[in-house]
Amino acid sequence: AAQTTANRGVGDIDMIIMHTSEGDPTSSYGPADWFQDPESNASAHYNIYGTGTIYQSVSDKDIAWHAGNSAVNKRSIGIEIQAKAARGDWNELQLAQAARLVASLAEKYNIPLDRDHIKGHVEVSGPGGHTDPGPHWDWDDFMDRVRSQSNNPVRKLQEIAISWGPWVGASVLSLWGLWLVKTVVKRKRSR
């Protein structure tokens, strides 16, 4: 994945940027696959497929090339949802997984749960701009989902089961099977 090696932590990361991949949410080829292609010149930290599976393409401590704005990239985590912005064709499972992930990351990095810190790509992209997550993205609903997850004791137990340690080459499934995170470092590209 296109990225800049760094050593970011709490205090360095203060935003989460939501994206749509502009790909078919029912396809098995998704953003994590594209980000592995050396020609992509882009990446995101996390990718949420139509199945609800979350793949991590770039370690949180490193800088993903997702915002089209290097200053924003340096201080944010990028999350791609496999869907098309113009159609708003993400599904309920993707929204639920995105809310869980954003709540967890916000807690980990002390990011306030507000629209000044959780933004769409459209709000931070550089010249030429992007429009995602698009006109169908309901920010009020999404932020309500995130806030409801921030104090969810089941999510906290799932997080403990996952253990936010190094994930290289690992697939982790919580005890409840509700939260699936896989790294794509060694995932083979399929077209």
Radius of gyration (Å): 15 Å
Q: What is the overall silhouette?
A: globular
Spatial order of the strands forming the largest sheet: 7-2-6-3-4-9-8
Distance between the termini: 17 Å
Q: Segments where pLDDT lies below 50 for 5+ residues?
A: 160-191
Topology, number of strands:
9
Description:
27% of the residues lie in helices and 17% in strands. The protein is of the alpha/beta class and 191 residues long. Helix 3 crosses helix 4 (139-150). A hairpin with a 6-residue loop joins strand 8 and strand 9 (180-183). It starts with a strand and ends in an 8-residue tail after the last strand. It has a seven-stranded mixed sheet with strand order 7-2-6-3-4-9-8. Strands 1-5 form a two-stranded antiparallel ribbon.
What characteristics describe this protein?
5 helices, disordered C terminus, 191 residues, 9 strands, two-stranded antiparallel sheet, alpha/beta
Summarize the structure.
27% of the residues lie in helices and 17% in strands.
Set down the secondary structure blueprint.
Elements lengths: L2 E2 L10 E6 L10 H6 L9 E3 L5 E3 L6 E2 L5 H6 E6 L10 H18 L8 E3 L18 H12 L2 H10 L8 E3 L6 E4 L8
Parallel strand pairs: 2-6, 2-7, 3-6, 4-9
Antiparallel strand pairs: 1-5, 3-4, 8-9
Helix pairs in contact: 3-4
